[in-house]
Amino acid sequence: MLLLTLAAAGLMVGPEPDPKRIVNTNNYPAAMVQANKSIFAEIAAVINPDGEIERCGVLTFIGDAQFAKGVCGLLDKHMWNKSLDTEGRPIYALIKTGLKFSIPSTRVGREVQSAKQHADLQLPFPYEWRGRADEVDVPLSALIGDDGHVEACRFQPAPLTKKDARDLADLACESIGRQSFGPIPTNKGSITRYVVTENIRFSRSISGRPIGGSNP
User: Which of 149, 150, 164 is nearest to 201 (CA)?
Assistant: First the structure.
């Protein structure tokens, strides 16, 4: 039985955005600004072992459909640093994240500002939890083995991650260890061994056993 804890990650390095290449207001298309168009797009991107975006697609979006269609084209090809497996070797990665471009003076812009990324898995807080937040998102990177199961898992906070998230990381890793993951498409065909980002949401509105979850 594999015990999934933060220590189990070893040398695994999940995909992290390069601060110099991250999407910001400078990437806002002028035509969309002039047309008062806003968007929140959740995307999935396949990053090759060299740290380059091979594939990118929009999973869901709020806002202008035409804007959503071209949002992947706004990303720098080298926006994310390459991922490493537990042996320190470069490996493919599947990233799921959200991109926001909003004009707050519009109704859709305000809706975009308040939107949040969907959870890959939703869980109730543990009984001993003493935090005050009603919801806490725990961002993780997980190494998926050839058999579709998690080999290693680590907490990978983003700039806006709540401080409480670290205290829930072990439980989040343990929970995704029960999931199975399918292969991902790449330019070299389907790949079964890769790193994937997962967003685990703990919520007071959920009771009983963990619910939700999805395969890439």
Answer: 164
Q: Tokens for 128?
A: 């001993």
Q: What is the SS3 assignment for 134? A: coil
Closest C-alpha among 128, 140, 64 to residue 102: 64
pTM: 0.86
Within the chain, residue ranges assigned H as helices are: 30-34, 65-69, 107-114, 165-176
Q: Which two tokens stand for residue 110?
A: 């305000």
Q: Which amino acid is at 187?
A: N
Beta bridge partners of 84: 13, 90
* Phi then psi dihedrals of residue 123, to 5 deg: -135, 150
pLDDT digits (tens, 9 = 90+) for 103-155: 999 999 999 999 999 999 999 998 888 888 899 999 999 999 999 999 999 99
How is 16-32 classified by DSSP, letter by letter?
Answer: -B-TTT---GGGS-HHH
Q: What is the pLDDT of residues 4-50, one digit of tens each?
A: 333 344 567 888 888 788 887 888 999 999 999 999 999 999 999 99
